């Protein structure tokens, strides 16, 4: 009797199972044992690479070694205008809400082992870079202007520092750099967190990725949500480290800040008028000082809701003070843009009320008094989850999130570079497709 073949199926079902097994086995070895190939530098996906020290998939960023006057020199000029550098504080950046520029500069100067979790890796060879960071302290430069009194006989004041001249000198220096000229600035990153920072030269650097706190002073031809990144201000009051709860939060709504502002900030005076006599509501005029910050800390840590009206521009540091205080922000600012909205749903951590409705007598207080304790606790729990995104000193906080946002712009950067290389110079009546308007349609009142 002839020997039966092992491969001869007894039924069509066995035949199907056998070849299905072979197909799965082949697919497994194809997918999991095929090595990755390095992309060329012109590839849109060229940012996905294997770097030294296990920096797989990180965007490579080169930080310019700017002349000292654009970094530490600005700090020294600021200190000089205020009595000189104090002993032991040489090179120390002054604390203010625009400290993002200092934190990013300091972060890129860390050794690689201290930058765990970052989406970017610093490279020292510009030829290997995907992006170029320009670490000019533009916000501090704006307020550094030290004006010295004139001579005793009544002579003219002497200006030792000019922010406008610094801006011009920065751009002139950049325009001499081969990597700026190579791609028309598209792959450069600038931080200009103060609404007026780089105001004189912004049209000359607008191709780059701008790190801003809002679009209050920028036109739609200069900035957009598509190419730029919204940054949080550095919070100025102490973080609340207690538990969620309402037992120690006896004030319904708290606000402390300057009552009179320009432009969109005029709503503040109207809100004062409708709120200052309400029970369980504390609204106070305050200025930037240590005592004011201590009082604001006490107020935010003992209140359920914290009012955030627009200032001279749509945003202000008070919003981020509220978040780290677990005090539910009540945002009355129709055109505000918020940081990191791809990972944070602000409806879970804040209440939004359009300006026209908020200034109606009695409306805001009645709305907030209707919020049940369980809902307040849910808000606080969500605030606690996301507050690390607004802490520049957290190792996995604001700085890492900014770099992640910057890294996401790389495909657009490469797209715009390639388009520029094939298109002729043209005068457009409307903004290019890299610029989109921010929110100009107001907001929906929540709750």
UniProtKB/TrEMBL annotation:
<feature type="transmembrane region" description="Helical">
    <location>
        <begin position="12"/>
        <end position="32"/>
    </location>
</feature>
<keyword id="KW-0328">Glycosyltransferase</keyword>
<keyword id="KW-0812">Transmembrane</keyword>
<dbReference type="GO" id="GO:0000139">
    <property type="term" value="C:Golgi membrane"/>
</dbReference>
<dbReference type="InterPro" id="IPR040911">
    <property type="entry name" value="Exostosin_GT47"/>
</dbReference>
<dbReference type="Pfam" id="PF03016">
    <property type="entry name" value="Exostosin_GT47"/>
</dbReference>
<keyword id="KW-0808">Transferase</keyword>
<dbReference type="InterPro" id="IPR004263">
    <property type="entry name" value="Exostosin"/>
</dbReference>
<comment type="similarity">
    <text>Belongs to the glycosyltransferase 47 family.</text>
</comment>
<keyword id="KW-0472">Membrane</keyword>
<protein>
    <submittedName>
        <fullName>Glycosyltransferase</fullName>
    </submittedName>
</protein>
<feature type="domain" description="Exostosin GT47">
    <location>
        <begin position="58"/>
        <end position="361"/>
    </location>
</feature>
<keyword id="KW-1133">Transmembrane helix</keyword>
<dbReference type="GO" id="GO:0016757">
    <property type="term" value="F:glycosyltransferase activity"/>
</dbReference>
<keyword id="KW-0735">Signal-anchor</keyword>
<keyword id="KW-0333">Golgi apparatus</keyword>
